[in-house]
Amino acid sequence: MSGATTENINLETYDPFADAETGGSHTHSTDDTKAKRAASLVHIRIQQRTGRKSITTVQGIDRRYNFKKIVKAFKASFCCNGNVVEHPEHGQVIQLQGDHRHAVVSFLVEKKLCKKDQIKLHGWDK
Prior knowledge:
By secondary structure, this protein is an alpha+beta fold. It has four helices and five strands. This is Eukaryotic translation initiation factor SUI1.
């Protein structure tokens, strides 16, 4: 193999999911608006505990509201227990016993705590 030519080898790392994380756009102005919109979203998730037990978590409600009063209203409306947990990354997160995702969505929209298009529902469908 004397006189073999060396090829340019691309040794840069490539992340195939980078476009999915940024929404596929490369302009900063739309990225900023998407980041603001993502920051203003209310995420409602379900986490499986043991067996049939589950926890509904609500994250991203505006900080100007009193979370303890919201939990108190959730507990009375949904006949469940709940609390507010301080998460280091996500801030204050409301936890409710049981699967109350759809009830939480309708409650938040009825009480005008957020709009329907600001709510992101996660988890499997009932």
